[in-house]
Amino acid sequence: MRRFSARRFLALSVVTLSLAGIASVTWAEKGDIYDMLNLFSDVFQRVRTDYVEPVKDSDLIEAAINGMLSSLDPHSSYLNEKSFKEMQVQTKGEFGGLGIEVTMDNGLIKVVSPIDDTPAFKAGVHAGDYISAINDEQVMGLSLSDAVDKMRGAPDTKIKITVLREGEKEPLEFNITRAIIKVRSVRSRTEGDIAYLRITQFNEQTIDELKQEWEKQKKAIGQVKGIVLDLRNNPGGLLDQAIAVSDAFIEEGEIVSTRGRDPENTKRYMAHGGEATLFKNIPVIVLINNGSASASEIVSGALQDHKRAIIMGTKSFGKGSVQTIIPLPGHGAMRLTTARYYTPSGHSIQAKGISPDIVVEQAKIEPIKKSNLQRLEASLPRRLKGEDELKNGEGDKDKTSDVAAMLKKDGKKKTANPDDVTDRTLEGDISESEDFQLSRALDLLRSLSIYKTLN
Questions:
Q1: Which of 41, 113, 225, 319 is catalytic?
Q2: Per-residue pLDDT tens for 165-174?
Q3: Would residue 208 show up in a list of annotated catalytic residues for this protein?
Q4: Second label for 267, Cα 20 to 30 Å away, from 156, 235, 246, 414?
Q5: Which own/partner pairs from 385-391 qualify as long-range (CB within 8 Å, at least 24 positions apart)?
Q6: 18 falls in which pLDDT band (50, 70, 90)?
Q7: Are 126 and 149 in contact (CB under 8 A)?
Q8: Which is the catalytic residue, given 294, 300, 316, 321?
């Protein structure tokens, strides 16, 4: 009797909830739905009565819902009450964990990007890494939310993650101490007469922090000749903040559109102009890479289509789908993919990404050691004097002796001397960690500034 009551109650509940969503289908289709719901009821009942260990009914139902949603795409999922609250905290700019944005890819957890100055970032986790195990437990078979739950934890507790990285023959292990992740959405610094603005992710504070950092840069520089907007390894975030940031650069026209299954639900978001436009008539270069996703692709795509900025770096991640958070009173929420993003020119971002106008791979800068055998006009014997030499009354010193001395010196083996300032300057001043992409962006902005001055 108990078994029949439970089955009947579950079947009737699910059918009743489902009828509202199948009013437009044919009776034949309804019959198929009833059959599948009965199948679900049979499986549910068999598991709850015959599984080797007792299982809570609520856990089974939540797992079934999550399985249904996660089977749709990597970004749809069920959020229980705890996960829903954590997500709300995260969008406010503070949460606990390692500091990585992740997605599911081929059964493994793929790192979209590490967040700046977080434990994962400092440990050396890279965008594109695959997490194969958490504390020696394989992630294959876990849902994305389950894996995220395992990575989260109390501050100052340790966790070990095993990472598969392209180019590495063996898995990499990282022992990381969890921390409270306080995300500072926008950072800035002065690069001569150019303002460098970096957005790490789009949370509720982004546009306000961007305004604050811009005021700081204007005071420090005075006449700003260019802006580098760094969106590399930015995993995205809130749509309204991406639109507000784009609005700060674009004076008119469309920023982005979202299109769902129903064409009538297409939404277009337009620039406001006026006071909303913070950056007028200033050359802009946007830096992106394969860790730039979602909201950061909306910004770079809008600025590219409006020819408001030069996009530099490498192709972006390609997450062009819209997730709607639908609260389920008393049971958390569901994250459901409901639409796709399109740039102002009508291009879909999904699985395509934003292609930079100028492709610049990240690289290490290594100076070429200067040879002592360099030949200049000034080193040639019997050369004509320069005007400065004539004015200063310098004599006809024969440079041949200098050249001979140089050749003699070059023929000897030289022992490195740590106190030799000249050699240090030639060989060691440029750090291996220097940002090559940023350097190219700054060079281009300075070139544009010179060109504008000449014309």
A1: 319
A2: 999 999 999 9
A3: no
A4: 235
A5: none
A6: very low
A7: no
A8: 294
Report the 10 Å Cβ neighbour count for 189.
Answer: 14
The pLDDT of residue 401:
46
Q: Compute the CA torsion angle 447, 449, 454, 455 (nearest 10 deg).
A: 110
Is residue 158 annotated as a catalytic residue, yes or no? Answer: no
Say which CATH topology domain 94-182 has.
Answer: Pdz3 Domain (2.30.42)
pLDDT of amino acid 86 = 76
**Start and end residues for every CATH 2.30.42.10 domain found in the chain:** 94-182
Q: Distance between CA 63 and CA 48 in Å, rounded?
A: 13
Structure tokens at 377: 């006009």
**Is 305 considered catalytic here?**
yes
Mean pLDDT (whole number) for 255-268: 95
Given pLDDT bands bounded at 50, 70 and 90, which one contains residue 420?
Answer: very low
CATH superfamily label, 186-359:
2-enoyl-CoA Hydratase; Chain A, domain 1 (3.90.226.10)
**148 has pLDDT over 90:** no
In the chain, list all ranges with CATH 3.90.226.10: 186-359
**Which one is catalytic: 225, 230, 305, 316?**
305
